Amino acid sequence: MTLSLDLCLYLCAAVFSIGVYGVLSRQNIIVILMSLELMLNGVNLAIISFGRYFITPEGSALSGTGASSSQIFVIIVLAIAAAEAAVGLAILLAVYRRWRSARVSDMRLLKG
Predict the structure, then answer these.
(1) Which residues are 77's β-sheet partners?
(2) Which residue from 10, 50, 59, 90 has the highest number of Cβ atoms inside 10 Å of its Cβ?
């Protein structure tokens, strides 16, 4: 059973929207970082869905490398997401050690 492109894109939009809601409505940095990861996973799912959609039934891609290109692009996005999470957690750790809080409103104190 294969899913249609429309259904996959609705799922991508739902995951991305949950991530946007988490980023905009929460004050805890850890929850915001997790919501950013949800947003990136929604985008990754959309990229894989488009890559899968543009493959013919015989298995050859219409553009030559449709599926493998999308998979490589998703791996690059995952690597960037891992770097973003590492930097974000390092900043969180530094802020938490200094002010014993993980709230975004305490980040204003970082301004010189």
Answers:
(1) none
(2) 50
